[in-house]
Amino acid sequence: MDTSTTQSRIAICIITRKRPKGLARTLASLDELVVPDGCLVEVVVVDNDDPDAASEHPLPPVGGSPVHRVAEPKPGIPFARNRAIEEARTRADFLAFIDDDETVETDWLVRLMKVRDASGADIVTGPALPRLPESSPAWAERSGIYGCHRYVTGEERPWAFTHNVLASTRLFDDPDFRFDEAMQYTGASDTQLFRKLREAGHQIIWADDAIAWEWYPESRVNYRWAFARSYRIGVTDAHMELRRNRRLGTKIRLSWLAMRYGVRGVLRGVARLIHPSTALACCGWDLARGIGLVGGIFGARYDEYRTIHGE
């Protein structure tokens, strides 16, 4: 990794918990990274574990430089993400988040910075494309439920996710812009924070050619996990909407959306009956989302991230 120029400092932040093999794969891809002209890059790893456990797996240097590694003993994704923000604020002008089950293309950071420079946006985000195990059933690919939405480069987006995002660290000078630690295991604290930043007037711009790859373990490629994930998304979507506005109209709108997911699920299932397993995947995904929305309206909670998948 060439880091010969130092005009802008970028901290690539990865949070991790008990996934040494996945983290090693992520770091190996970063070791091949092309650094944007005029930038100095440092990798920051936040172990969401106790310091002794974190030290059991030494990390190799990336680009010839040591990885800055810290431990965040409070369990839960938002605690680790907030620690990453604090580390990046003191070390960099920009932070980039990726996950410990991902790899990136060699020009990933160049593409993010190119869109950032062209748009002047405070936040740039891109796709995290699926890498499924070779043993995956055919429905996993056919159904598209493991896929990633794609948009035109330069399009403005209402939110971003930490699986592929670049943001100016000056955004976090305001202590109100942090991941919600009440969402300890629920997921979606990234959606909530970036939506909040967007509503405060900070642009989020899409970079479609800034590619990250999400590597799915076998334990996630099955109906049970897929439907539970969709249910969780429905629950957290409802919670986020109700936190913004608890009026009756919000609940009616969420109920209407849940019904639409139910109808869409049935229609998508019927349309794919030539492949029954794919039909079940599509129908179940949408029905689970609708059920999750209804559950969220009535206060249901699903702590998906208490369980760790991958190694």
Written account of the structure:
With 311 residues, this protein is of the alpha/beta class. The chain has two domains: 8-219, Alpha-Beta Complex (Spore Coat Polysaccharide Biosynthesis Protein SpsA, Chain A), CATH 3.90.550.10; 222-306. The chain is 40% helix and 16% strand. It has nine helices and ten strands. A seven-stranded mixed sheet has the order 3-2-1-4-8-6-9, with helices on both faces. Helix 7 (223-244) runs parallel beside helix 9 and helix 8 (248-271) packs antiparallel against helix 9. The protein is globular, with a radius of gyration of 20 Å.
SSE topology:
Layout: E1 8-16, H1 20-30, E2 39-47, H2 51-54, E3 68-71, H3 77-89, E4 94-99, E5 102-104, H4 108-119, E6 123-125, E7 128-131, H5 138-143, E8 165-168, H6 189-199, E9 204-206, E10 212-215, H7 223-244, H8 248-271, H9 276-297
Parallel strand pairs: 1-2, 1-4, 2-3, 6-9, 7-10
Antiparallel strand pairs: 4-8, 5-10, 6-8
Helix pairs in contact: 7-8, 7-9, 8-9
